[in-house]
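pinned: reference chain
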Amino acid sequence: MQTTVPETAQAGPGLLIHSAGLLIHSAGPLEQDALAGVLRIAANARAALGQGAGIEVVVQGPGVTLLAKDSSATEAITNAGQLDVGILACGNSMRSAGMDDKDLAPGVGTVPAAIAHLARRQWDGWAYARL
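pinned: its structure tokens
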């Protein structure tokens, strides 16, 4: 079961409670296949690290549009979510793309600012990978 910890009142589901974990950062424009690849890598990390490790994928930049509920990437999003991989959209990037929380696929959470979330997770001892 995934537990959420909001960073602010604006944060939605998807933030995991773990003492440490792997934070995967995807920034910039993304093609559907690229997002599916990032989520496959997160699934592979889950298999290698086990259920005890936190794994989050934070999408920042124009690629947040692929996290929409009508996106062709929803199957990959669902599959990653079933493996207890947190999938988070940057709120600033969503605003730039004209998106609201209601536009996101089920299971996708938000953070107000990806850069602040990345910093907090690293301060908490999480490993960082940019894909």
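why pinned: The two ends are 26 Å apart (CA to CA). Residues 21-130 form a domain with the Hypothetical Protein Ychn; Chain: A, fold (CATH 3.40.1260.10).
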